[in-house]
Each structure stands twice: as C-alpha cells, then as structure tokens.
Amino acid sequence: MNEKDLARNILTNVFPEECRTVGPNSLNDLLSGDVTIVPPEEGRPFPLMEVFEFLKEAAQFIIAAYSVYKILRDQFGRKPTLRELKQETAKQAKRGSLSDKQIENLLKEIQKLD
Fold first, then answer.
1. Domain segments of the chain: what residues?
2. Terminus-to-terminus CA distance in the chain, angstroms?
3. What are 67-73's contacts with CB under 8 Å, separation 24+?
4. pTM surpassing 0.90?
5. H or E element in which residue 5 lies
6. What is the pLDDT of residues 32-86, one digit of tens each?
C-alpha cells in the first residue's frame, strides 16, 4: 500500500466526518499534495479551510508515524507497543494541531496494519 492510500484509509477510519465534509476528490488532491491552503483575501475565513488544514496535518503525521513504526518493528523484530510508538513519534513526527487522543487513535490504526 502506498503512502497516499495508507493515509486515506486511516483518515477515513479515524476522521470520517471530516473526510466526508471535504469529499473524496478534495481528499485525494490533499493527499497528492496538489492543494495549497490559502486563506481568503476578503471576507470571513471559511470554516472548511480549517478542516483541510487539519486533514493535511493528520496525513503528514500518519506518513511520518508509519515510517517510525516500520523502523521500530524492524529494530525490535516485533510490533512496537503503543507506548513505544508514542514516545518515538513524539520525537520525530510533527503533530500540528492534533490532540493526544487523536494521535493515539491514529497510532492504533497504524498498529493494525501488519
């Protein structure tokens, strides 16, 4: 599974409402890196922009955390525990605006992959 599919699957499992809000085409664009999130020059900020930014941060975290997961798995010869994964991703993965609970949910999904 490539990184884009991995991120899409985990995002839709953990954040289904947010993914439905932006729609599948926009989510694909976001995961392809084809989207630049720019606030409007006039008027009020559009709330959907916050959802795009949140999903972009979550996708970047997923990709980085999965890399950490694979390194730890290879290093330990077993799946890393949630605690080990949390500790290492705290050092190496940018969390953005993700809460501790959201990060935990994402890491649990990553652990299910193998």
1. 3-36+43-111
2. 11
3. 68/92, 68/93, 69/110, 69/111, 69/113, 73/114
4. no
5. helix 3-14
6. 876 666 666 766 666 788 898 899 999 999 999 999 999 999 999 999 999 999 9
Three-state secondary-structure class, residue 40: coil
Do residues 31 and 8 lie in contact, with contact meaning Cβ atoms separated by under 8 Å? yes
Burial 80-108 (b: 16+ CB within 10 A, else e): beeeebeebbeeebebeebeeebbeebbe
Rounded distance between C-alpha atoms, residue 3 and residue 78, angstroms = 21
Contact present, 105 and 10 (Cβ < 8 Å): no
DSSP secondary structure letter of residue 77: T
As a whole number of angstroms, the distance between CA 50 and CA 92 comes to 24
Residue 37 structure tokens:
């999130």
Closest CA to 59 of 100, 13, 21, 112: 13
Position with higher pLDDT, 92 vs 44: 92
